[in-house]
C-alpha cells in the first residue's frame, strides 16, 4: 500500500492565514468592548505610563509632603523652612564656682594682733598686741616691740611727690643724706609693685646707725593714694639671728591689713 502526503487541513490543522484572521477579529472585539466600558462608566483620564491609574472621583488626596508648603495659583511652591531653634539661656554662675568675685576686705588677723583706724591719716591697719606707741605725730603712727628690736610705722604725706614712684625716689634721696637721716653704709633695692589695686613701690634698705656697727634693715612700702597723698608702711629691725624672719612676718602681716583712702 502506498502512502500519500496529506496537507495541514487534512491532518486536523488550520491554514496560517485563517488563524491570523481569527486573532485579529478577537483583538478588534476586545478593543470595542473596552471603548464601550469607557463610554459608559466615564473613567477619567488615560492610564499613565507607569501603569498606575489616577485616583477615582471622590478619593481623598494624599497628605501634603512636609518638604514643601502649598503656594497660591501661579506661584511656585516654597520649601518649608525649619523652625528656628530656641537659644539656650545664659548660664548663671553658681555661688562658689570660682566665677563670682570674692568680696574685698582685709585678711583675717592672726592671733596676737589687733586692728586700728586713723581718721586723720585716712588709713586702717593692724599692730601686734602689747607694742608701745613711738615717735608719732600728725603724719605718722609708730609702734615699737617690747624688746625694742622692731619698729612698725604707718604714714601719709606728699613731701616727696604725689605718686608712689616720686615719693619713693624722694625718700630714698633723703635717706642718702647721712647728716639728715643718720643712715650710714646705705644699700638700697627698689621694686615696683602694687597694693590693693594701686601703684606701689617697695624699698629694702640695709644700713647702720652712726657710731654703731650693728646692722639694721628697713622694709618700706609706698602706695599711691587719693588727693595727692602717698601712704607708707615700714618695718625697721635689728639684724641678727632670727630677726630677718621675724621682720618678714611682721611686714607681710601688716601689709595684708593695710587699707588706704579710708573715709
* Main β-sheet, spatial strand arrangement: 5-6-7-11-10-9-8
User: Total helix count?
Assistant: 4
Distance between the termini: 155 Å
Per DSSP, what share of the residues sits in E-state strands of 2 or more residues?
Answer: 25-35%
Poorly predicted sequence stretches spanning 5 or more consecutive residues: 1-13, 36-103
Could you give a short account of the major beta sheet? 7 strands, antiparallel
Counting DSSP E segments of at least 2 residues, the number of strands comes to 12
Average predicted confidence as pLDDT? 75
Query: What is the helix content?
Result: 10-25%
CA radius of gyration is: 55 Å
- The arrangement of helices and strands along the chain is HEEEEEEEHHEEEEHE
Class computed from helices, strands and strand pairing: alpha+beta
Quick recap of the structure?
The chain is α+β, with helices and mostly antiparallel strands and 263 residues long.
List the main descriptive attributes of the protein structure presented here.
alpha+beta; seven-stranded antiparallel β-sheet; 28% strand; 12 strands; 263 residues; three-stranded antiparallel β-sheet; 4 helices
Amino acid at each position: 500500500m502506498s502512502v500519500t502526503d496529506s496537507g495541514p487541513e487534512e491532518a486536523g490543522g488550520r491554514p496560517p492565514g485563517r488563524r491570523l484572521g481569527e486573532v485579529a477579529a478577537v483583538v478588534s472585539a476586545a478593543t470595542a468592548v473596552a471603548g464601550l466600558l469607557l463610554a459608559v462608566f466615564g473613567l477619567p483620564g488615560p492610564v499613565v505610563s507607569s501603569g498606575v491609574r489616577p485616583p477615582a472621583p471622590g478619593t481623598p488626596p494624599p497628605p501634603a509632603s512636609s518638604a514643601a508648603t502649598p503656594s497660591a495659583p501661579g506661584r511656585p511652591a516654597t520649601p518649608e523652612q525649619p523652625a528656628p531653634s530656641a537659644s539656650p539661656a545664659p548660664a548663671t554662675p553658681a555661688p562658689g564656682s570660682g566665677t563670682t568675685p570674692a568680696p574685698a576686705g582685709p585678711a583675717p588677723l592672726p592671733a596676737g594682733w589687733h586692728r586700728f583706724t586713723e581718721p586723720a591719716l585716712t588709713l586702717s591697719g593692724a599692730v601686734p598686741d602689747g607694742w608701745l606707741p613711738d615717735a608719732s605725730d600728725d603724719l605718722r603712727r609708730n609702734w615699737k616691740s617690747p624688746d625694742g628690736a622692731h619698729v612698725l610705722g604707718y604714714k601719709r604725706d606728699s613731701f616727696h611727690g604725689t605718686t608712689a614712684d616720686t615719693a619713693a625716689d624722694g625718700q630714698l634721696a633723703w635717706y642718702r643724706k647721712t647728716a639728715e637721716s643718720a643712715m650710714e653704709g646705705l644699700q638700697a633695692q627698689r621694686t615696683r609693685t602694687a597694693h590693693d589695686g594701686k601703684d606701689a613701690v617697695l624699698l629694702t634698705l640695709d644700713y647702720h646707725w652712726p657710731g654703731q656697727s650693728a646692722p639694721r634693715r628697713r622694709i618700706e612700702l609706698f602706695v599711691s593714694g587719693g588727693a595727692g597723698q602717698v601712704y607708707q608702711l615700714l618695718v625697721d629691725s635689728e639684724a641678727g639671728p632670727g630677726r630677718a624672719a621675724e621682720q618678714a612676718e611682721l611686714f607681710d602681716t601688716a601689709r595684708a591689713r593695710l587699707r588706704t583712702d579710708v573715709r
